[in-house]
Amino acid sequence: MDSKIQKLLEDKHELIGYAGVREKYPWLVQRDQNCILSPDSDGMLCGLFMSKFLNWKIRGFYDGKIMVLEDGFSAKDCVFLDMEIYRKGIRSVGQHMVMFNRDRIPGNWQNFDDCASINNIRNHDGYHDFRLKYPFGTIHFLIGVVGSTKEIIIHKSAIAPLLFTDGTWMNLLGYTENSLSWLSYLRASEEHTPLNNIFLNRHYSLYELMLTMDVFLRQRDEISVPREQGDRISITLRGGEGIPHNLTADIGGTFSFDQGAKERAESFLRLLSVLTGWEYQEQSWCWSKWRLSQFTKGDFVGSKLRLSNKSFDEFIEKNPLSFAMTSTQNIEYTIEEPDKMY
What is the pTM of this model? Predict the structure, then answer.
């Protein structure tokens, strides 16, 4: 075992208080909310899950470079799922590392007052705890929170997509000690809870799980096209400059998702629906009449900045829209330029 990890984990025996999370972020379990998703498998699972159990409506997507949002709605009308938005009054849920040093909290950190970030909830920061960052998807956090108020059945067939998303199954094996710590924290060891059914299930041997994951990956690949994996909704190309992709301008200044891209996205959503039992309800998902906002994405490495207390403070003073610490020396971030998040 990694002795350094064991040392870091020595004092990490606390349990999440789901009642306290619901009290601080009551909108997490309220029905009939509007939401904006990250355009990947985690975001899509979150959308299907919240639509199924709380009748949420998916109004748009945000990938850090572009936001598309149904005409007539504003960011404050929606909950952002699978991303942390650094704006007070804009609700968001995420699983990224955003706090650099808990002993040096920036003066405007209240911008995250309406953000349910699981690393922040556990008081994990990049300076002390980067190796202990949350290793699962936003969907697992949401299942834990919503599952603390109502019965949620996890079907055997749902295990593959729920372990695929955000590389969860690889993290379970590659970062075992930290994963076990987080499973304990999330109360996954408690019987008759949905997280117990996902992570402590008796359905598969390791070999059977590998075969099941292989089938799921082949199904995903059948939906993929060059430069676009089937488990993503591409509104910009990965690694690009934030140029709109798969979007068609409508008369009146709005945008719609290209038909071929929409069909691929719906194919993956229907695959997830069949496996999870969380029905894809087309009327709950907006694919047209989107208003488009473009932002500027950057990172510390590309800007040749060394991540430190001083550089983090200076960065926060620039009031980033969203950001995530992706390594001990890098933060990827979004600035509200040229557009503002309306």
Answer: 0.95
